[in-house]
Amino acid sequence: MSGVIVIAPIVATAAWPVLCSAAAAVMGAVGLTAVNAQANITTDVATETNTRVELDLANSEEVGTTIRRDEELVFANDSLKVIFSRDTRGKLKICVEGSGYSKAELEQFGRDIAGRVVQQYAYQRIVQEMQARHLSVVDQSVDADDNIHIKLRGWED
Amino acid sequence: MPAREIDIQIAPDGTVRATVSGIKGPACQELAKELAQIIGQELSFAPTAEFYECEEHRDVDIEDQSRT
Questions:
Q1: If you placed Cys at A76, which of A12, A81, A89, A110 could pair as Cys (CB 3.0 to 4.6 Å)?
Q2: Burial of A157 (0-12, 13-18, 19+ CB in 10 A)
Q3: What InterPro entries has UniProt attached to this entry (chain B) (predicted)?
Q4: Which residue numbers of B have CB closer than 8 Å to A's CBs?
Q5: Tens digit of pLDDT per residue, chain A (157 long)?
Q6: pTM here?
């Protein structure tokens, strides 16, 4: 071995397309599907019975001009809705709404989702960028604790 | 040509731990730093024994070759 590095991912500038892809993968895994943001906001979202929490996406920075301030990514099922958007500072935030859930439950769900989205974001960025550097994925797996393992291999020039 | 390998573990909170192997010397740290720049902020880097091994150099005697 040569060295071990530990990195905290940052959802970076102009990474909105990668984030959309990561969010879609995570939301699909928990049974939420993408919905049309504008249509949904005017219909069933803000009912009085819904509980709503808002969370900052940890380690996010200005997402650049690839997302407008009013642009949102919305996922929903029968009882939950998750909205990814850009706040006034340009950072990403997650809003979780649901009926029949406490604020604490929604906050926990939101934090779990946020972590998984960052995990998927890191996975997609690593694979994409390392392949561009002639390192190929030779093995990958997910363990019982939901850690993603990737082995990349290349040949020195 | 030796293989260079990176073993990566991405935790559910997104934290990435990468073990770079097959690269001796500072080039290993350069690749690790490059990885950090791609996805976020480096929290720590711990070199291992191989890190301190010298890169291989091969000397070519040009004078001798020109005489043949």
A1: A81
A2: exposed
A3: DUF2997
A4: 1-24, 28-29, 32-36, 38-51
A5: 478 889 988 876 556 778 888 889 999 998 999 887 554 444 444 455 688 998 877 666 655 555 555 568 899 998 899 998 877 776 778 899 998 889 999 999 999 998 998 899 899 989 988 888 888 999 999 999 999 999 999 876 5
A6: 0.78
